[in-house]
């Protein structure tokens, strides 16, 4: 009886690990899309709304969901708390605080950090160009993430179950 329960728990653990890895692959394209949406809203706020950057970030955070909302909300909060920090300092700190809780990888992080270097540092048109460049780069990363999802998501889920079954066979 205990062997049967142990075998079930091992297979369940392998299945859950596979589902977790597959979920990670499924969430990445969605989070990149949320980030692109947030940057498009930021472009609109800067170009047409002519709002100060902290207000624009707070407004965007209210309109988004998920990790994108957390990034913009954290940046707006840092702007409010740390008046002597530059826009890049607040943006960079927000990225480093939010990133570990996302499914996003380093290429997206590098794009977002690069964008932070110009936020609040140049005129509207220059910021608009940099935001569009970041959106274009994120679009390419989203395409790659979707390809990886299609290629590896089902495999990760299957390998989780199969590794649990293999472990049970090897142990018993």
Entry summary:
With 172 residues, this protein is mainly alpha-helical. The protein has 6 helices and no strands. Helix 1 crosses helix 3 (66-81).
Radius of gyration: 21 Å
Sheet with most strands: none
Mean pLDDT: 90
What spatial form do the alpha-carbon principal axes imply?
elongated
Beta-strand residue percentage: under 5%
**Please, what is the oligomeric state?**
single chain
The SS-based structural class is mainly alpha
Helix and strand sequence? HHHHHH
Number of DSSP strands?
Answer: 0
Characterization of the model:
The structure is a single chain. By secondary structure, the protein is mainly α. The mean pLDDT is 90. The longest helix has 48 residues, at 2-49. The chain contains six helices and no strands.
What keyword list fits this structure?
elongated, mainly alpha, 172 residues
List the helices and strands and how they pair.
Elements: H1 2-49, H2 53-63, H3 66-81, H4 87-98, H5 106-116, H6 124-171
Helix pairs in contact: 1-2, 1-3, 1-6, 2-3, 3-4, 4-5, 5-6
